[in-house]
User: Fold this.
Amino acid sequence: MLGFVVLLAALPSLTMIAAPNRVGLTTEWTIQGLPVPARPFADADWRIQATLVRPGQPPAKVEGFWYVPFRDGKGPEDKVTFTPTGKAEWRLRFTPMRPGAHRMRVRVTYRGALRGTMASDFRVAPGPLRGFTRVNPRNSSYLVTADGQRMIPIGWNLAWWTQGGFKDYEKWSDQMQTAGMNFARLWMSPWCFGIETDPGQLGNYGLDRAWALDRVLETLRQRGIHVMLCLDYHGMLNETKDFWGGNDNWRLNPYNQVNGGPARTQNEFFTDPAARALYRQRLRYLVSRYGSYPNVAVWEFWNEIDNVQSTFQANDMIAWHREMAAAVRQMDPYGRLVSTSLTSDTFPSLWSTAKLDLVQSHSYNASNPGIEFAERAARFRLAERRPYLVGEYGVDFRAPMLENDPKQRGLKQALWGSLIGGGAGSAQSWWWETLHTQGVYPMYRSLSRFVSATPIGSPGWQPLRTTNPEASTVLPPARAGSPAFTVRIPLVNAWGDRNRGVLILTDALGAGAQSAHLNGYLHGTSKPELRRPFRLKGHFGPSARMGYRLNSVSQAADLRVLVDDREVAAKAYPDRDGKTEVIGEYNDEVSVAIPEGTHTVEIRNVGPDWAALDWVEVAGVRPTQAIAAESFLLATAASGTDREAAIWVMDRAYSYPANARELSAREVKGGWTEVRGMRDGPYSARWWHTRLGMWQGTTTAMSSRGRLRLTIPPFTEDIAAMVRRQPK
Assistant:
């Protein structure tokens, strides 16, 4: 039944234009009979506020929004264009979450004065909800939809279209659906979906882009893809051009005082009362228009806000996040997640102080991403007790760099390590168009099928500790008659990582497999508790050399190269940029001749503060005879309970970027891994071929004293397993 009551003649009427009346599908109304508003988005003018009484839930409050329909086309240089196709009007949307009788009451006000009331009563049939993501109340490190279904994000960024316009999203999402991918991240940027990003748009939103976002969200909803909607990106506060020669959009930001906005500085965007009120007004419009989409999973305020941390005061930025998180929760009747994103753990207090639901960091150019992301997930779980997601990932931030990773090992390791290690979902890759063209969908299909067959995210599921065999620190004899080798060993910049600090130069594969034993941070005399050795043992030929690339220093560093504790080279590095970030301050490459013979070569920092190395390279080294465990130096990520676990094991010889350009990989035989914290008793391990996406056999093992040692079947590069305790 549909009806309305007006208080004054010729005042508004309510018409239902989309009436699926089923759980999970959106009902939509138009409101007619109102004058064309001069300021349709202003909080102080026209407001259409509806209260819905719904079964089994508190009343929901939703608001109307100003709408113009468009059609898309192509303009000069093949750019996507939009042309209005109908009249502007007020609309109202609501998506029921439970079946039964619903009653909606609508109030229309103008500058606070009541101008009319309307009503709409309707019944809702049962149906699948499949949306409105939230934190799992039974395991706060994972996500569920509003109907309690597990939601493990497996996907990538789809931040904007290219020349294909909407057809880009159709082709991408068709393939994603087939591959079992269920998550994407969109940017409301000036060149795509941003509605308040250009001069003249302050409080006067771009409705063509708003219509485009409607269409893309619906395209993704039809294919079961949930969306993290990023409302702003860091370039809107940036004044200087970046690596790509742009993203200096503070000059164009409508909040900037030079464009008629209220903020004289970027920090005033966060502190000025008028600026904050205008942003809350935008939030109200976004929630009113897009809140009814069940597949909108996350409101993400900023992309990488720490990328422009020099433009604001940290406390002001964090206070702003707290205020806006509270505001959007009050506006959104569906209870979805609220987040923001950082490049790293720059502001650790942000997540708890601002009461954000999802912890995010981004990662590019990472060494050993599989294990690094697993360790991050464990660390954030312990610190934050909330879901953690790698919101962007790439082997390089500048470009896809396929030439550096032709087998896509970095991507695969990032996906499996981040999810199996305890993240809320897989690392969300950047460079989506290149990955689409490269046809990486089978990689995602394999991961999705594995997750579907496991209880990841169930109550009690958490990161688990593992151990793996390690090669001896004793240098074996040289292998007679074998040619000398050259290897560049990538380094992990892990602050305070307690690695052993010794690498045995066995051969190119073996040296790469041991890369985690050396820390890229060489700490100085001011941090004795963090200092670790940085030594390489090997048999050096007649023209051998050792080199390194220094990325950055903090305050000052003084690097010395020693051969058998005798200094052979020294170079001092004063602080050039006054920063404590690893951002290419030097990128200085040094090469030192090493005398022929068996030696221990060390790089030592005798300066006051740290130096960060990108890599160390040795040339002209003779390979050694085989040593115990050399052929299966492994790394394992695992998560589970004390009765069942998902594990992922990787051959460290190919831990990206080690040996990334090797097109073929060795087969590992005789490897083992040990999972800690498992209840004593018998277990079965069902093994998963990560490339083919299929089960490949089952083994059994016994856990004793909380340690479950698994013998791993032969594999190449990596392998996964689902482990379950069996009845005695």
